[in-house]
Structure formats: C-alpha cells, structure tokens
C-alpha cells in the first residue's frame, strides 16, 4: 500500500510542473491583452470641463468584435498642441473599464421574427421562439446590471399568412420602450411567449420602419438638445437588433434591398446588428449535399426547404452598412451570447480622463488613443478656461495681497489727502 502511495505521489509530483506550465500557457493565451486589436475609436467629441478632458473609447479585434477586457496598461495617449506643434506622450490619465463606466443612454429596438418557422425546434430541441425569448430575457438582465438608462422595445414582426393575422409594425408598436429594469418589459415577454408564430417573413419593411422611427431628428428622446439647440453629450446610442430565422421572400427582393441600403446609409447614426437563428448556408449545403453553401436558387429549386433557409449573406450586408455585427446561432445559448456581444458593442466603452498639459484658453489641441500600437483617429478640442484653478490657500494669499495693495496705494493716501484738506479749511 505504502509503495503504491509513493509511486502515485511521484507521478503527481512529476506532473505538477507540466500541468502548471499548461495552465500558465492557457491562462496567458486567454488574457485579453493577447487579443489582436484592429480598431481604436474615440467615440464622439471629447468632453472638456475646465482643464479636464474626458474620452469614451471603443476597441475592436480583428473579427470586428468589441474588446472589453483590456487593462489600463494597454492604453496610451498622444496629446498635441496644434499651434506650437508640441506633442505630449507621457500624459497621466484616469481609466475606467466598460464594466466600471456608467453606460451612455441607449434606445434599442429588437425586431423579433414571428414567422411560422420560429415554432420549429433548434439544434438543442427548444422551439426557436422559446429560445429567442429566453435569450432576450438574459439580454435585459445583463443590460440592467450595467446600469444607466437603457430603453428596449421588443417588436414582433411578420406578414399575414394562412389563418394568421400577422404582426404589423407601426409607430405604436415601435414605441414600446421600457427601461430594462421595468417589470413591464418582463410582462410583455410573458405575453409574447404565449403567442404562436405563424406569419411569413418580410425582413426589409419592418427594418425600414424601425430606422425611420429612430431617425426622427425632432424626437428629443433620441436627439436631445440644450436651450441653444446644441446636442447634449453624451448623445444616446441608437440601435436595432434584427433577429430572424428566415429571409425576405418578396418578389422584388433586390430592389427592396437597394432601397433599404440607401436608407441605412442616410441614417448612419443608427447601428443595426443582425442575428440569424438556424443553420448557416454552409451547414445547409452539407445537410442537403449541395456541394456548396445554400443560396436562394436552392430554395427556388426545392433543394432546400424554405423554412430552413436563412439569408446569411443579406444579414451580413445589412450589418456591415451600419458598422454593426452579424452573427449566426443554432441554439438559445448561442443567441444569448450574441445578444450580449451586441450589447457590448453598443455600450462597451472605456472612459479616459486627463488634465490638459499647459492649458491655454481657446488654443486648439488634439488627442489620439493608442492600444497595442493601434492608433485612433485624432479628435480636436479647445480648452474653455485659462489655466488651472489655483488652490484655495494661494487664492486667499492673493486676496490679502490685493487688499494690502489697495489699502497702501488707495485708502491711506486718500485719508492723508482728506486730513490736509481739513487743515487748510481751518
């Protein structure tokens, strides 16, 4: 027994270095700073209060996904005094991660496909509508934990079909916003879960209506202005999440898409994320032995069932036009993960604040943020005051000196002059 124990101890002892090395390598590779940065963006214009400058920064990786687990050591600032052509590279700054910052206000419309195919089961045996609603609940919980003022409108859509009234969209159905911490939102999802999907898919019309709704510049919720008519910063983030397991099955699909494309470009302040629910084109091609990824022609030739085809290409194109993310999910868990990804893309901003070196009122400056040697486009700003506020002690000393000077140079000579006038009168 003792011999077996010694042998076992020896094996464990000899394995520890290898295991430790493996765990170290795994942990190191999983560190966020090992991810490759693709873009760094200073969101909106810098906010300047006296000599303090505050930036909101987004970082994406090579897959165009948000990187929200970076550390302060991954960031550097480059501040330029434009008039004097002087660059400051050693600026000390305060830093907050996306989890620590209060997210900007956001208005999110979730377009939920209610076509008949959403009643079918996903790859894990859950009906797609159940999986989608479960994922949306998780999405709202995560948004609630983030804090801030995030408003969500869940909008079911679908054209009328056989024995189905459909789910028409208008301003009333779109304007169904609730804060993510409002119990009304969960009640609405409960009611939605009791419905049976039965409609036919029309992707472009609901999306167009949602874009036009959020694009109304006279709506102060989406575009708040101050008394002078200037935008109040931070401006709300506006986003649409399109969740569908189908495709736009109307006769003039190409023409409809071009119209949608132009509308999206015109309203480029609205980010559209798309989420396909089902098998990818590649998976459908393998399932039905097509020898290539499935496309519309395979549906038209009845080689792929219509209720299984999701237009992956169009979903990707829609998201790309707006700078959004397009993802594909085969089950409810993946849907929830991708919804969280969209939330991170919308609200996952780092906050950096610093004191302007040698500030001068009215002088133009610009700042760039560097993350792992990837540099953002510079953002210009001006300091609105002259220099930094002096400490209270210094200001009191200056006040006493001014009073002394006024006394010596003004009050005392005036008193002496008054006394001389009295003597002359007497």
Automatic annotation (TrEMBL):
Q: Where are the transmembrane segments?
A: 396-417
Alphabetic keyword roster: Membrane, Plasmid, Transmembrane, Transmembrane helix
All residue ranges annotated as the VWFA domain in the record: 107-318
The record's CDD domains line, in alphabetical order, gives: vWFA
The family database entries (Pfam families) matched by this protein are listed as: VWA_2 (PF13519)
Superkingdom of the source species? Bacteria
Report the protein name in the record: von Willebrand factor type A
């Amino acid at each position: 027994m003792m011999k077996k124990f010694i042998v076992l101890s020896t094996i464990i002892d000899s394995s520890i270095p290898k295991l430790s090395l493996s765990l170290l390598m795994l942990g190191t590779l999983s560190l966020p700073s090992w991810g490759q940065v693709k873009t760094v963006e200073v969101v909106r214009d810098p906010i300047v209060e006296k000599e303090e400058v505050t930036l909101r920064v987004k970082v994406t990786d090579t897959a165009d996904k948000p990187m929200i687990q970076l550390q302060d050591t991954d960031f550097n600032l480059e501040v330029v005094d434009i008039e004097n052509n002087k660059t400051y590279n050693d600026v000390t700054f305060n830093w907050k991660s996306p989890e620590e910052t209060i997210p900007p206000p956001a208005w999110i419309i979730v377009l939920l496909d209610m076509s008949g195919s959403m009643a079918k089961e996903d790859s894990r045996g859950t009906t797609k509508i159940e999986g989608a609603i479960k994922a949306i609940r998780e999405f709202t919980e995560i948004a609630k934990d983030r804090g801030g003022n995030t408003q969500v409108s869940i909008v079911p859509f679908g054209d009328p079909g056989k024995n189905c009234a459909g789910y028409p969209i208008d301003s009333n159905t779109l304007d169904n916003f609730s804060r993510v911490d409002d119990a009304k939102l969960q009640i609405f999802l409960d009611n939605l879960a009791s419905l049976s999907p039965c409609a036919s898919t029309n992707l472009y019309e609901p999306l167009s209506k949602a874009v036009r709704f959020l694009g109304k510049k006279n709506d102060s919720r989406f575009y708040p202005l101050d008394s002078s008519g200037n935008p109040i910063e931070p401006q709300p983030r506006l986003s649409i999440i399109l969740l569908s397991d189908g495709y736009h099955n109307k006769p003039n699909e190409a023409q409809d898409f071009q119209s949608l494309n132009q509308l999206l470009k015109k309203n480029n302040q609205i980010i559209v994320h798309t989420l396909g629910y089902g098998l990818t084109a590649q998976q459908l091609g393998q399932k039905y032995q097509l020898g290539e990824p499935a496309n519309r022609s395979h549906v038209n030739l009845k080689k792929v069932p219509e209720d299984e085809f999701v237009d992956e290409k169009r979903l990707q194109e829609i998201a790309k036009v707006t700078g959004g993310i397009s993802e594909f999910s085969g089950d409810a868990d993946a849907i929830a993960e991708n919804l969280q990804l969209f939330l991170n893309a919308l609200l996952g901003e780092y906050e950096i604040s610093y004191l302007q070196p040698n500030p001068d009122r009215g002088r133009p400056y610009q700042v760039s943020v560097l993350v792992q040697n990837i540099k953002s486009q510079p953002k210009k700003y001006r300091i609105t005051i002259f220099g930094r506020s002096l400490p209270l002690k210094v200001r009191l000393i200056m006040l006493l000196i001014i009073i002394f000077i006024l006394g010596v140079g003004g009050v005392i000579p005036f008193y002496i002059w008054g006394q001389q006038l009295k003597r002359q009168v007497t």
